[in-house]
Amino acid sequence: MSATIIDGKAFAADIRGRVAEQVAALKAAHGITPGLAVVLVGSDAASEVYVKSKGRMTVEVGMESFSHRLPEETTEADLVALVEKLNADPKVHGILVQLPLPGHMNSDAVINTIDPAKDVDGFHISNVGLLGTGQKAMVPCTPLGCLMMLRDQLGDMSGKEAVVIGRSNIVGKPMAHLLLGESCTVSIAHSRTKDIADVVRRADIVVAAVGRPGMVKADWLKPGATVIDVGINRIDAGEGKTRLVGDVEFDEAKEVAGAITPVPGGVGPMTIACLLANTLTAACRANGLPEPEGLTV
């Protein structure tokens, strides 16, 4: 029997709706409007589209959107100065510096200039450390979205065996920490893992975030496993066309898994939804108010 298909588009729309409700309540009760500032340096086409989408959805949920577009030749010092200005702006509760930055900039140095309380991407070294030690942090958006879908699908995950494929700082490592926080038994598999199929095959939960199209085959999966496919890979579809696929061979895997996310339409839509949720959370924390229920860890 085919797996349950986890509809990321519908889930993300629900998250955005809940954010909008709580933003309206925050305005009505306290006169506070969460504000998100997005900084884009240069003219990377994919980043341009992503930033435009973020700005539109920010406004749709009732938040303030502040967009800062800087030329490619902007110096790192000037970018840091802008970030420090946003740190000091009380109308800005979340700051996102769109990556990748131009080659002449040190991305780590820029990200670590952001006030950790406004770091809605969850990339600041302070938030990485807080998450790793089980303390209250700003959680990276994509892993947070994965966790929300897993909680919705599985409920209590205590004692389940989870394998995260990929060890990036953006997805793999924070995802492992979040699953540990759910009392899962967690393994991280990567390019040098021996007998990787055997490692994955014992997992009740598989999060694939390695960036290799179709890497995870059906025979890698434990029957009934819940599979979250974070991969977004563009491949040749013939006749000069391309298509998006994940890190999991979806058509065959759905016949073995208990539940699975598609690509596209799975994890992807959750990233911006969780960015909005993080901005709301940051606004609540900045004003000493209760955190939004169900929208954070």
Briefly characterize the structure.
The protein is α/β, with parallel strands linked by helices and 297 residues long.
Structure description:
By secondary structure, this protein is of the alpha/beta class. It is 39% helix and 17% strand. The chain has ten helices and eleven strands. It has helices at 8-30, 45-60, 76-87, 107-111, 125-132, 141-154, 172-181, 196-201, 250-253, 268-286, and strands at residues 4-5, 35-41, 64-70, 94-97, 161-165, 185-189, 205-208, 226-229, 233-238, 241-245, 259-260. The strands form three sheets. It has a six-stranded parallel sheet with strand order 1-11-8-7-5-6. Strand 2 (35-41), helix 2 (45-60) and strand 3 (64-70) form a beta-alpha-beta unit. It is globular and about 50 Å long. The two termini are 33 Å apart.
Name its key features.
297 residues, globular, three-stranded parallel beta sheet
- Major beta sheet, specifics? 6 strands, parallel
Give the uncertain stretches in residue-range form. Answer: none
Order of helices and strands: EHEHEHEHHHEHEHEEEEHEH
**Rg (C-alpha, Å):** 19 Å
Total DSSP helices: 10
3D shape: globular
Mean pLDDT comes to 96
Q: What's the count of strands?
A: 11
Q: What percent strand? A: 15-25%
Read across the widest sheet, the strand sequence of neighbours is: 1-11-8-7-5-6
- Measured as a percent range, the helix fraction is 25-40%
Indicate the structural class.
Answer: alpha/beta
Measured between the Cα atoms of the first and last residue, the distance is 33 Å
